[in-house]
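Quick one, tokens below:
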């Protein structure tokens, strides 16, 4: 069990280090870095490389933003198998809708409760 926590920490940390290096060394904006990591997760899932990473690192691979790209592609591919080409569109929204909806709802509640300093 301790090894599981260790590898989750290491893999999640490596993903974060990659993102930080992209911003510091390549001088990418946070938005560009975010987009690049999402696309990297999508590409890794397209080549069936992200699921083994999740099996190995657990939350170290599912928590970072690369997992969002993985979820988009994974959902689209599953729905294509079930419903044909229209599954490309419906699969992406089906898998990620709960996370996106939660983020919007909690951000709205946070904005109602706390006063921004803008």
């Amino acid at each position: 069990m301790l090894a599981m926590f260790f590898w989750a920490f290491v893999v999640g940390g490596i993903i974060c280090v990659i993102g930080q290096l992209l911003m510091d060394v390549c001088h990418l904006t946070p938005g560009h870095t975010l987009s690049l990591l999402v696309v990297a997760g999508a590409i890794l899932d397209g080549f069936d490389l992200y699921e083994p990473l999740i099996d190995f690192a657990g939350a170290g691979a599912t928590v970072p933003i690369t997992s969002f790209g993985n979820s988009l592609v994974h959902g689209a591919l599953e729905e294509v198998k079930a419903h044909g080409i229209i599954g490309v569109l419906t699969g992406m929204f089906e898998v990620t809708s709960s996370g996106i909806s939660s983020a919007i709802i909690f951000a709205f509640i946070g904005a109602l409760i706390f006063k921004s300093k803008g």
